[in-house]
Structure formats: structure tokens, C-alpha cells
Specification:
The complex is a heterodimer of chains A (about 350) and B (about 170).
Chain A (H helix, E strand, L loop, with lengths): L1 H26 L4 H6 L6 H4 L4 H26 L2 H13 L1 H36 L2 H6 L3 H7 L2 H7 L2 H7 L2 H6 L3 H7 L2 H6 L3 H6 L3 H6 L3 H6 L3 H6 L3 H6 L3 H6 L3 H7 L1 H9 L3 H27 L12 H4 L22 H4 L4
Chain B lengths: L2 H10 L7 H34 L5 H26 L4 H6 L1 E5 L7 H10 L2 H4 L6 H5 L6 H6 L1 E5 L3 H15 L1
Antiparallel strand pairs in B: 1-2
Helix pairs in contact in B: 1-9, 2-3, 3-5
The chains are: A mainly alpha (about 350), B mainly alpha (about 170).
């Protein structure tokens, strides 16, 4: 008896702790006071219903009886007399079986609406009792999704049939293209576009062959177009000297009225005589320079042609009429200090 | 005319160091003009002085003053045009200009230094001038003292156009 009482106390403590665990799982963490209450010093008579140990004893007895009965039944039903008795009984209770079948059918027909009514009546309460947030928090959605074979699902879908059912026109009518385009970052979009590759595929000749340039030019306001051109900026980027170098000024002066104007404005024997004298002087100078260079065995091409400001890169258009010389900023130039002079 | 060749040559050498022949010719012209003007001035001054003094003056001190005056006149004749425009009369005729050694405009101080040191060419018995002929930059001794150089400075391009225009009209 003493052993049985002790066993009863232990099983009651286990049930109490299980109950506490279940309660904790449902309502969250327990208060410290409650944890203290469920310790070993708690009186089991005060906190537990008295019928648990009796219920356990009944369940244990029933299980034992069932186990023994199953063994006996198995042994009995497998014998030949039992099989004969079973067959005889089946024949004798056939009318009862048919009657019972009818009753079950009627109960099934009538029980459907009643069960539905019962479900509708109790469902809200059941839903309220269920902590959906807790249930959903316990669901590992990623794990569920990872188990889904999307490719297999998509492979089963007949997209052609699906698209055939879609009314694209009606769909597009519902789209606000202005709002849609307002959301598009055209800059980022164009940065991704490889214009070179795009243009390489374009047949410009075929494209231009279809353009009516005459009609296009008729609509162009050339005055407005030229008015917007910054000629100063344009000319600053042009190498005028290179352009002028390509002009045959000699032919221009010789064959145009410009030559006559120049001749008339500077005509006179004195100016021509002066030109001749100067030209002759330059010729003699060069002759002397060549003689001296040859005498000194000096490479004339290695000699400086003139002062750096006049013949170097920074030279002005060199000493033409009205073209002032650059101002000297120092009284003694670099050339003056050069000992090699 | 064969002048076209010479014009082409001159065009290509604008801003280059001037050679000895042209510089000597320009100096000869300048010297002649300066001396002629001074002689004329002295003659006029002497004539006026004779009129005033009735010809009773001793000519020796007058000659001494005249020599000093000649040197001063030459200093003024060459120095002032060099300081203002970089070219004297003879240089302007032959298309020459005095510039600083780097090609910039000659400052008045350098122009004065150049005319003051100009006699060094003669005082060295002409050796000071040899730099014009043999030097790489055709600079005489006074050019080196003053930090100057002489370059071609005539509008040869316009001269060529004039030449072409005349011959175009004639043909």
C-alpha cells in the first residue's frame, strides 16, 4: 500500500508538471510565483482533482483486458469451429444487416445538415480559441516553399491556352501609361543600352532613302537655327590657320579684284623698289650665312632661326603690319644670361 | 621678273635674325642720313652764328663742340627710334627691327644701353661686329651688352601680294 501511494503521488506530480507545460505553451511564460507553486513542496491534494488516479487505474485495467481479450479472440477466431460459427451467424443476421444498412443511410442523409449546422455554430468559437498568430509563427514557410517544385507546376500549365483566354486589349485599357512612364528612370534605362551595337544594326542608307529631305528642309527655320548657334564658340574650336593654309591666296590675289585693289592701294615705284631692295638684302644675307656655315662646318638647320618669342610656338603672326611685339617683362632675359652666346 | 623667288625667301624669314648685309646697308643709310642731317644742321647753325657774330669767332672750340654735338646727335638719332619703335630710318627702309633677345619689345633702357655700347664695335677694331657675321644669332658685341637682337620686320607677304597683283593685272 505504501508503495502504491508513493507511486500515485509521483504520477500526480508528473501530470501536474505536464499540465503546467501545456498551460505554459498556450499562455506564454509563467509567473515566478506559479513556478514556485509547482515545486516539490506543493500539496498535491490542494492543486489536483482527486479523480485522476482512479481514471488511470481504469484505463490500465481496460488496456489489460483488451490485450488479453485480443489474444483470446485471435486464438478463438482462427479455429475451424469459430469460422463455421461465424459463417452461420452471418447468414442468420443477414436481414438484421440489411435493416441496419437502411438505418445508417437514413442517419447519413439526415445527419449532413445537422452536422453542417453544428459546424457553422461552433466554428467561430473554435477560430476564436485558436491562436492563429502563434500557429503561423510556428510554420516554416521557407521550408514549405522549398519543397514545392515550381518548375513542375509551371510545366503543367498550358500558357498558350491561358494567354488565349486573356483579353490583352481590355488589360491595356486599364493601364495608365502616363503613370507607368512616370515611374521609369529613362536615364538608367539608356545607360544600359549599347548604342553602338544598336546603331551597327541599323541600315542608315535604307533609312535615309525613305526620308524626304526636301519636305524636311522646308519645315526647318534656318534663321532660328543659326540664331541659336554660338559662332564664337564654334570658331574658337576651329583651326583657322589650317583652313587658311589650304587657300591658294596667290591665285586669289592674282585672279580677283582683290589683287587690283591691293595693287592700286600700294602702287608706286617706291614701294616696289623697296620690296626689291629688301628682297635682295635678304638674299645676300642668306648667301653670306651659308658661306659662313660652310666655312665653320656648321649645320645651319641646327642654328636658331630667331628669338624664341618670334619663331617658337608662342610666336605671333610674325611682325606683320599692325602686329605689336610682346612686351618684355624683365630687363635681362634668359638669352642674355646664357654664357653660350 | 625673278623677284618672286626673293619674296618667297623673305616671307619665310620674317622674325628671323637679320644678316650682315642688310644690317650693314641699314647702318650705312642711317649713318649717311644722320651725318647729312647733322652737317646740314651745323651748316645752318654756323651760318646763323656768322650772321650774328660777323665772322669773328675762333673755329677750334666750335669744332670741339661740333664733335661732341655729333656724338650726342647720333645717340639721339639711333637711341630714340630704337626705344620707341625699334627701328631707325635705315632699318625701317630695309625692314629691320631691334628687339630684346627673347623677341619681345626692346625697352628704352636697353635701347639706351645699346647706343651707348655701340662704339665698342669700332673700339675693338671691328671685332665687335664679327658676331653679326659669324654668330649663331647674328648679334654684335653691343647686342650682347644690351640684350638685343635684330630681326627682319617687313611685311613681305603684302609685298608678294603687291607683286602678284601687278603682274596679274599686266597679264
Amino acid at each position: 500500500m505504501l508503495l502504491g501511494q508513493n507511486h500515485g503521488v509521483e504520477s500526480r506530480d508528473i501530470r501536474e508538471s505536464e499540465a503546467v507545460n501545456v498551460e505554459s505553451a498556450m499562455v506564454g511564460p509563467a509567473e515566478p510565483e506559479n513556478q514556485q507553486d509547482h515545486g516539490h513542496s506543493v500539496n498535491p491534494e490542494a492543486s489536483s482533482p482527486a479523480g485522476y488516479w482512479g481514471l488511470d487505474a481504469a484505463l490500465g485495467a481496460a488496456a489489460l483486458v483488451g490485450k488479453v481479450g485480443a489474444g483470446v479472440t485471435g486464438a478463438v477466431t482462427s479455429s475451424t469451429p469459430a469460422k463455421f460459427a461465424g459463417s452461420l451467424t452471418q447468414r442468420l443476421v443477414a436481414p438484421l444487416s440489411r435493416y441496419g444498412n437502411d438505418v445508417r443511410s437514413r442517419v447519413a442523409d439526415g445527419a449532413g445538415p445537422a452536422v453542417g449546422d453544428t459546424v457553422r455554430r461552433f466554428t467561430p468559437g473554435v477560430i476564436d480559441a485558436v491562436d492563429l498568430n502563434g500557429v503561423l509563427a510556428g510554420v516554416d514557410v521557407d521550408d514549405i516553399v522549398s519543397r514545392v517544385d515550381v518548375n513542375n507546376i509551371v510545366g503543367r500549365v498550358d500558357l498558350d491556352a491561358l494567354m488565349a483566354r486573356v483579353d490583352v486589349g481590355a488589360l491595356l485599357e486599364r493601364v495608365d501609361l502616363n503613370e507607368l512612364m512616370g515611374r521609369v528612370d529613362l536615364g538608367a534605362l539608356l545607360e544600359r543600352v549599347d548604342l553602338n551595337a544598336l546603331l551597327s544594326n541599323v541600315d542608315l542608307n535604307a533609312l535615309l532613302a525613305n526620308v524626304d529631305l526636301n519636305a524636311l528642309l522646308l519645315n526647318v527655320d534656318l534663321n532660328a537655327l543659326l540664331g541659336g548657334v554660338d559662332m564664337e564658340a564654334l570658331l574658337s574650336n576651329m583651326d583657322i590657320n589650317a583652313v587658311v593654309d589650304q587657300v591658294d591666296i596667290d591665285a586669289l590675289v592674282r585672279n580677283t579684284e582683290l589683287g587690283a585693289i591691293i595693287a592700286q592701294s600700294t602702287s608706286g615705284v617706291a614701294s616696289e623698289a623697296l620690296d626689291v631692295a629688301r628682297s635682295q638684302g635678304v638674299g645676300i644675307d642668306n648667301l653670306l650665312a651659308k658661306l659662313v656655315d660652310r666655312m665653320l662646318r656648321r649645320d645651319s638647320s641646327a642654328l636658331p632661326e630667331g628669338p624664341p618669342l618670334l619663331v617658337g610656338n608662342a610666336a605671333p603672326a610674325a611682325l606683320t603690319v599692325g602686329n605689336p611685339l610682346p612686351e618684355s617683362e624683365s630687363t635681362t632675359s634668359e638669352a642674355d644670361r646664357s654664357p653660350g652666346e | 621678273m625673278s623677284n618672286a623667288v626673293d619674296h618667297d625667301l623673305a616671307i619665310s624669314q620674317q622674325g628671323h635674325y637679320a644678316g650682315a648685309a642688310t644690317r650693314m646697308a641699314a647702318y650705312a643709310i642711317d649713318q649717311a642720313v644722320a651725318t647729312g642731317l647733322y652737317s646740314l644742321g651745323v651748316a645752318v647753325f654756323a651760318w646763323i652764328l656768322t650772321l650774328v657774330t660777323s665772322g669773328n669767332l675762333d673755329p677750334k672750340p666750335i669744332l670741339g663742340f661740333a664733335s661732341v654735338g655729333y656724338l650726342l646727335w647720333l645717340t639721339l638719332y639711333f637711341g630714340y627710334p630704337w626705344a620707341v619703335s625699334g627701328k631707325s630710318f635705315g632699318m625701317a627702309l630695309l625692314g629691320l627691327r631691334v628687339v630684346a633677345a627673347d623677341g619681345s619689345k626692346l625697352l628704352p633702357k636697353k635701347a639706351f644701353l645699346r647706343i651707348v655700347s655701340f662704339p665698342l664695335g669700332f673700339l675693338t677694331l671691328g671685332i665687335g661686329f664679327l658676331g653679326i657675321l659669324f654668330g649663331k644669332e647674328h648679334r654684335a658685341i653691343y647686342d650682347r651688352v644690351a640684350g638685343s637682337a635684330v630681326v627682319y620686320d617687313w611685311d613681305a607677304r603684302s609685298a608678294r601680294w603687291r607683286f602678284l597683283a601687278r603682274h596679274g593685272n599686266e597679264s
